[in-house]
Each structure stands twice: as C-alpha cells, then as structure tokens.
Amino acid sequence: MSEATTTPPPLVQGMTYEEMPVGHAFRTARRTVTETDLVNFISWGGFNEPLFLDASHAAEGGYTGRLIPGGMIYCIAEGLVLQTNVLHGTGLAFMHMELTVKQPVYVGDTLYAVVETTGSRPASKGARGVVTSRIGVRNQRDEEVLVYTPVRLIRGKDYEPEAR
C-alpha cells in the first residue's frame, strides 16, 4: 500500500443503532463450560460458596453436577455476544440490565445466546442511539437457562467523536 493511499478500513465494524431495529435477531457461536472455567471464575471472583466448590453439598441441594454460578453464565454469554463483533467500535456504554436465571447450568454444558432487539431509539443528544435487547442463553438441549436484557448506548451512522 503506498503512502498516498488512505488507511484501509477496519476488517471488523460493529453495527450502528440504526442497523439494530426492533425484531433484529442473531445467534452466537457455542461454547462448552469446563471445570477449569469454573475454578478460574470462582477463584477470580471470590465465589467461595460451597454450592460451587463442594459437589456433595450441591448434590444435597438436588443438583446433579458441578454447578455454574449465574454470574458466570452471564459473563460467558456476554463474551459470546462480543465475539460476534456486533458492537466492535460502535458500542459506547452499557447502561442497565435485568437478569433472570431460569435453570441450572453444569460443567460440560454447551451454551450459546440468541439476541433480539426489543427497543431502538435515538439518544437525547448526538448521533447515538439507545438499544435494548433480550438475550436468551440456551444449552445443548436448546433449553433457555438465563435471560438478560441489556440497555446499551450505540453509535449512530453519523456519529463523530467529541474533540479533546
């Protein structure tokens, strides 16, 4: 590429809020949760709860395997969403969410997320928008195990960064 040529555009560019109308949906890749994932998460996050550390304690509660914390399920799902690059360079802020754990997830389960836009509107100022989505996390049996509804601030097609 010669010096006279402009810098090439990024290979990956996220969607603007205008490209996320209500009803827009997609599915992420899948990911199997491992014992190492569980140990790293509970150690890193300080989840020193017997429910996650002691298999016999979890079994006494009726669980049939190494139980995954709901916070970890959310983190895995959010990582899967970000790996699609849907927000790459366009996401500005994570503003709010509600989260519901619907059923247990265990080591060895394979998860993916289904993302559907449920709200999309211009922000109060600037070329930005507020996008709400419903993200349903599903396991290998296609059972919904967790749902969260993030509200994000997303760049619009005419967005210009503020001068510093």
Give an overview in words.
- With 164 residues, the protein is of the alpha+beta class.
- Helix content is 21%, strand content 29%.
- It has helices at residues 35-45, 50-53, 55-60, 70-83; strands at residues 25-27, 31-32, 91-96, 99-101, 110-122, 128-138, 144-148, 151-155.
- Strands 1, 2, 3, 4, 5, 6, 7 and 8 form an 8-stranded antiparallel sheet that branches.
- It is elongated, with a radius of gyration of 19 Å.
- It starts with 24 loop residues before the first strand and ends in a 9-residue tail after the last strand.
- The mean pLDDT is 94.
Helix content: 10-25%
Globular, elongated, flat, extended or rod-shaped: what is the shape? elongated
Strand content: 25-35%
Distance between the ends: 30 Å
Radius of gyration: 19 Å
User: How many helical elements?
Assistant: 4
* pLDDT < 50 runs, ≥5 residues: none
Structural class: alpha+beta
Q: Encode the helix/strand succession as letters.
A: EEHHHHEEEEEE
Number of strands: 8
Characterize the main sheet. Answer: 8 strands, antiparallel
